[in-house]
Amino acid sequence: MDTLTAMLTFLRQFPLWEQQSLTVDEKSPKPHTCQLFPLGLTVLRRRENVQGDKVFTLRQSFLLRRVAYAGQTAAAWLLALQNWLLTQPVEALEPAFGNRLRLWAEQGQPAGLNQPGTGVYQVKIHVEYEKE
After folding, report:
1. What is the CA radius of gyration of the chain?
2. Is 98 exposed, middle or buried (0-12, 13-18, 19+ CB in 10 A)?
3. In the CATH scheme, what is the code of domain 3-131?
4. What is the distance in angstroms between the CA of the first residue and the CA of the last residue of the chain?
5. Residue 31 confidence class, pLDDT cut points 50, 70, 90
6. pLDDT tens column, 47-76
7. What is the sign, positive or negative, of the torsion defined by CA atoms of 51, 53, 54, 55?
8. CA dihedral angle for residue 75, residue 120, residue 104, residue 73, rounded to 10 degrees
9. How confident is the model over 3-28, as pLDDT tens digits?
10. How far apart are the C-alpha atoms of 69 and 116, rounded to whole Å?
11. Which of 83, 119, 114, 89 is nearest to 101 (CA)?
12. If we measure between CA atoms, which residue out of 18, 22, 40 comes closest to residue 124?
């Protein structure tokens, strides 16, 4: 399984999805949908042992956007997602990403208005791991 599919599968376990769709890179989101945007991969460290084996420490980042009716409920959902991510076991992601995995979310915030009465809320999700 590739990392994008693994992250989609993992996020769908969040208890508050409430029948929302979760897609990748949708250009014109509709209310009650979430979109996941891959933001890229950063090499944090590269090591090589005496036998020539290379181990990379990598960070893959994603942007999750949710279109919802603006207000306190949408903001609370974003905070709940960030807190849920902190408490989840990450072993399910290891086959796709790698070893010594860390997962966290940050910068949850409103990102603008979509249609009248709806807002776009976003959060950055980071996965840091080692890959041989």
Report:
1. 16
2. buried
3. 3.30.2000.10
4. 17
5. confident
6. 988 888 898 999 999 999 888 776 667 778
7. negative
8. 20
9. 889 898 889 888 887 767 787 876 66
10. 9
11. 89
12. 40
- Rounded to 5 degrees, φ, ψ at 12 are -65, -10
Q: For residue 45, what are its two tokens?
A: 């460290």
With helix as H, strand as E and coil as C, how does the chain read?
CCHHHHHHHHHCCCCCCCCCEEEECCCCCCCCEEEEEEEEEEEEEEEECCCCCEEEEEEEEEEEEEEEECCHHHHHHHHHHHHHHHHCCCHHHCCCCCEEEEEEEEEEEEEEECCCCEEEEEEEEEEEEEEC
| Residue located via tokens 């942007």 | 63
Per-residue model confidence (pLDDT) at position 127: 92
Residue spans per domain, the chain: 3-131
